[in-house]
Design a protein that fits this description.
The complex is a heterotrimer of chains A (about 375), B (about 300) and C (about 325). By secondary structure, chain A is an alpha/beta fold. Helix content of chain A is about 45%, strand content about 20%. The chains are: A alpha/beta (about 375), B mainly alpha (about 300), C mainly alpha (about 325).
């Protein structure tokens, strides 16, 4: 009998017993900013980059006395890049009384968390670009990376009008971000009178892409456009070259990460990636300062430009708090929506009513033998 | 035609790797009727151990053939030791207990090894140095085959043949087969069953480490969650061929690789895994003992 | 009463008392913890449903997350595309899950344990892949379906975390009642006989095939029920919540806790699931320690932590 009592009670005892250990709600003296990112998992690189960027900015601000006389406290939650964990993280961060959340890296994780933040009126800024994120028009949503639609237009223009590729093969994975981007590119290419000979899917993370690439090789495409993430893009490029495919490789923005060149190895040289400029290439002084500070503190460059777009999200939120002298969501949201132009690390931009980022320059850059990027188009002008 | 041959090449390469890993599963199951869920993770651990050696000693870039060989040897030894330790700690104490307890212990061991890899090497994707092997490729009949692929296919064949010879034509091999048929009877015949089991946990993981390192060299990347996936595929291969049956594991591995390649190339790359699992279930329904028949004692 | 599963009269009282005490949790804990308690209830139901198949009927089901997932997706799809109220989707979720359980198990029941295990793994993988591939555009692909509504009871929206917890807790109570009655009824006895010795059970007139299929269907139905609650709790369903690892966890819970033992399964759920949530702060070390713990528990106590007391006949 005692065993049953102990046994059945143990489960609740565990929860209740730790009641003392949990933080008791206190009047929030510090300003809490949340970070929801894939600290572990496939995109751990990016997730940790976001965490570091936000912590760096918070530390810099705290050294100047914080915001409104209060210290900034950063709360991290690891969503592992997965929707279910993202929803759990969202609830936890909301319960932690954060003002705003930076993240997540993937559209899928951002999507899962979005309604929870919206209901709790917590600002969410993420580099997710799937169109699904705009569907409900949440006031709390601020996409800090340029939307898929803008990239798709640029991509189609580049493939058809600039490079004059005849036969275009499109490859994507099943994530909402990549499929959305691929669909948009296909539509824009067709509108531009380009020829899409195939659209195929891969399973992200499966590594074994040779079979589908072999199938594509038989169709003799002039270019393979891949809209998914760098961890797969690098392998696709390597396997393409190994199979002796003559097609060029053009990757969407999620291929931009230092790991792409590492994974693809010698095959990386010559691949083209479309994105806003990479951290090291950003011409803006604020960007250069930030990248230098990041390197000084962490001993490495930011993994990708998305670290900086999320850093922009954080900077915008901090600016809003300072300017409105308030942490009330309604005031901050109004300020952010109303900004005419924000000097971001990744360019000057603003947010429209839907929370879409407007006014961003895309470039197509080519990966060099040493892994660095050379901007191909638009051709860089002096200054 | 070229595409077809290419897919065959793709399939055989991956299949050789599956086969090497499947052998470990099948041997353990044959002797102990235990699905060693930690096996896939051990194999990937082999890849990581090799990786450390290659990047550590490489300095700037291109390690020679000697270093590569050393990496293999060190990896094999390390993983064989790990396998023996695993058996002692997680499985031996449970020999007399409910089989399911050993299964859960294996699952726990798998978690441990997988996360241990993450803690030691980090959660990000690790890239193998380029140029470990010559990048030569040959073209024939419209298909391309690379040096790496040839090496993997050949090495797998040689190793499998060696194992087959060992198990079927040596005394100790006979002891293994006897223990696989009936442990108690084997014991009565004077066979040191403990030693047989230990040896199985040396050979299986040892071969698996080679498979794991091949994965790293072929795909040039490794990350800590790979063990699960490859373990599962290898296990399917073992069942396909007939669990407990060594030639069966080899055949199963190769067939699985080929099947995968054709499913992806000719049917649909995104449904490829679903089709593979569908094949597994079909085999279980129609011929559960596998293509070449299982080699396990039936407990009445 | 010898060997009665809940320890006789005292067990019969202690259980409900503890359950009733649980209703007070939202007043004692802050909403993060209530959320964890809600998840505990949901996973406990799922674990108990696995126990029906694995612990009681002795069938190696290592793909149980499929039924959990079917329940969740049915609710998600019906609610987001057809605006069906959540509680109305419940019976359908359970029914479809049960049907899947019966259909999937029927051809494989006669297989040897390990083969059934592998087949269930296969079904799990196929299910996840199917959800990811988004056939017909209804499953939402890798990112799944978001924006699932909240249940409403008699016009009252159960929107707060506490309200959802109470719903989950009440359902858990109902499932515990079902499980206890399972022990006592004829079907439950038939399961016990089958598990002990299938050959002998046959001579007693137990139709192995029918009983096993029914057990699978029941386990699947309960998992489907939990799936609905899960979908509501997260307001999102995505394939990653139903992968093989989840099935493995359920399997381990039953074995670590004690096959066929209700207190054991509940304890197993608490350990397997709640504890990692508590130690989120240790992010990287969580699962490593977990793995070690699993091996240790099995080696030290292979019969499970709170094994069912066997009736001495």
């Amino acid at each position: 009998m005692r065993r049953i009592t102990i046994g059945a009670g143990a489960g609740f005892g565990v929860a209740l017993g730790l009641l003392g250990a949990t933080g008791v709600a206190r009047a929030a003296a510090p300003i809490r900013i949340g970070v929801q990112a894939p600290i572990t998992g496939t995109y751990a690189d990016e997730g940790q980059g976001i965490e570091r960027a936000v912590k760096l900015l918070a530390a810099e601000q705290n050294a100047k006395g914080g915001l409104l006389g209060r210290k900034i406290e950063v709360k991290i939650c690891d969503d592992q890049g997965e929707a279910a964990q993202a929803a759990i993280c969202a609830r936890q961060l909301v319960n932690d009384h954060v003002i705003a959340v930076i993240g997540s890296y993937t559209s899928g994780a951002a999507l899962a968390a979005q309604p929870i933040y919206a209901r709790a009126d917590v600002i969410q800024t993420s580099d997710g670009t799937s169109n699904e994120l705009l569907k409900h028009g949440y006031r709390t949503w601020f996409g800090n990376a340029a939307p898929n639609s803008a990239e798709a237009k640029f991509t189609a223009h580049y493939l058809v009008d600039v490079r004059h590729f005849g036969k275009i093969a499109v490859l994507t994975d099943h994530s909402s971000f990549a499929t959305g981007l691929a669909d948009a590119v296909v539509a824009d290419v067709k509108a531009d009178h380009g020829d899409v000979i195939d659209k195929s899917f891969i399973n992200a993370g499966s590594q074994n892409f040779s079979p589908v690439l072999t199938k594509l090789k038989a169709m003799h495409p002039d270019v393979l456009y891949f809209s998914g993430y760098y961890s797969d893009g690098g392998l696709i490029r390597a396997q393409m070259v190994q199979l002796g495919m003559k097609a060029a490789f053009v990757g969407g923005d999620a291929n931009q990460n230092v790991a792409f060149a590492k994974i693809a190895g010698p095959a990386a040289a010559g691949s083209v990636i479309i994105n806003v400029p990479a951290p090291a290439d950003l011409p803006y002084p604020v960007a250069k300062t930030f990248v230098a500070a990041y390197k000084a503190k962490y001993g490495a460059l930011p993994p990708s430009v998305f670290t900086l777009t999320n850093a922009d999200g954080m900077r915008a939120v901090m600016q809003a708090i300072a300017a409105t002298k308030s942490v009330k969501p309604a005031k901050l949201e109004a300020y952010l929506h109303g900004m005419k132009s924000f000097q971001g690390l990744t360019g000057t931009f603003a947010w429209n009513a839907k929370g879409e980022r407007t006014g961003s320059p895309f470039v197509a850059f080519e990966v060099q033998k040493d892994g660095s990027y050379r901007i191909l188009y638009p051709a860089p002008t002096a200054g | 035609m070229g595409t077809f041959i290419q897919q065959v090449v793709n399939g055989l390469t991956v299949g050789g790797i599956y086969a090497l890993i499947a052998l470990g599963y099948t041997m353990v199951y044959g002797v102990m009727r235990l699905i060693n869920f930690a096996h896939g993770d051990l194999c990937i651990l082999g890849a990581f151990v090799g990786l450390s050696l290659l990047t550590g000693a490489a300095g700037s870039g291109h390690p020679g053939a000697a270093l590569l060989l050393l990496a293999f040897v060190v990896s094999i030894i390390a993983i064989a030791v790990a396998g023996v330790v695993l058996e002692r700690i997680a499985y031996r104490p449970l020999r007399k207990a409910d089989r399911l307890a050993a299964v859960v212990s294996a699952l726990g061991a798998s978690l441990m090894i997988e996360n241990g890899i993450m803690l030691v090497w980090g959660p990000q994707v690790h890239v193998f140095p380029a140029g470990l092997l010559p990048a030569t490729t040959w073209h024939f009949a419209g298909a391309t085959i690379s040096f790496v692929q040839v090496m993997i296919i050949l090495a797998s064949l040689v190793l499998m043949a060696a194992l087959y010879a060992f198990v079927n034509h040596t005394r100790f091999g006979t002891a293994i087969r006897a223990a696989a048929i009936d442990q108690d009877a084997a014991r009565l015949m004077g066979i040191n069953v403990n030693r047989v089991i230990t040896s199985v946990f040396i050979i299986g993981p040892g071969l698996g480490a080679i498979g794991g390192l091949f994965i790293g060299i072929y795909y040039r990347e490794a990350y800590f969650t790979m063990g699960w996936t490859y373990g599962l595929y290898a296990f399917i291969a073992a069942i396909l061929g007939g669990i407990g049956n060594i030639p069966g594991a080899m055949l199963g591995g190769v067939l699985l690789g080929l099947f995968n390649a054709f499913a992806a190339g000719y049917v649909s790359s995104s449904w490829q895994d679903a089709i593979t699992f569908g094949l597994l279930i079909a085999i279980l329904l129609v011929r559960p003992s596998g293509l070449l028949g299982e080699r396990v004692a039936e407990k009445v | 009463m010898r060997g009665a599963p809940l320890g006789g009269a005292t067990g019969a009282v202690a259980g409900p008392v503890i359950w009733a005490a649980g209703l007070a949790l939202p007043f004692a804990l802050d909403s993060s913890w209530v959320s964890i308690a809600a998840f505990f209830a949901i996973y406990a139901i799922t674990a108990l449903s696995e126990d029906v198949i694995l612990g009681r009927a002795g069938m190696f089901d290592m793909g149980h997350a499929v039924y959990f997932g079917i329940g969740a997706y049915v609710t998600a799809i019906l609610n987001t595309t057809l605006n069906v109220p959540i509680l109305l989707t419940l019976p359908l979720a359970m029914l479809l899950a049960a049907a899947a359980g019966a259909l999937l198990s029927a051809p494989l029941i006669r297989l040897r344990g390990d083969y059934l295990l592998v087949a269930t793994i296969g079904f799990n993988a196929i299910f996840v892949l199917a959800m990811q591939n988004d056939p017909g555009g209804i499953t939402g692909g890798s990112d799944g379906i978001t924006g699932i509504g909240v249940p409403s009871l008699f016009g009252l929206q159960l929107e707060s975390q506490s309200a959802m917890f109470w719903l989950d807790w009440v359902v858990l109570g109902a499932v515990l009642l079902v499980m206890r009655n399972l022990d006592r009824c004829e079907f439950g006895r038939a399961l016990r006989y089958l598990k002990q010795d299938e050959l002998a059970a046959g001579t007693l007139g137990v139709d192995a095939r029918a009983v096993k299929t029914l057990a699978f269907a029941l386990g699947a139905a309960l998992a489907g029920l939990a799936g609905t609650l899960f979908a509501v709790q997260l307001s999102t369903v995505s394939p990653s919540s139903f992968v093989f690892t989840e099935s493995v966890t359920l399997f381990a819970i039953v074995i670590v806790g004690g096959q066929g033992s209700i207190p054991g399964v509940l304890l197993g759920t608490a350990l397997m699931f709640v504890v990692p949530q508590i130690f989120r702060g240790l992010a990287e070390y969580r699962y490593f320690v977990f793995g070690i713990a699993m091996v240790a528990v099995m080696v030290l106590r292979p019969q499970g932590l709170l094994p069912r007391r066997r009736a001495v006949t």
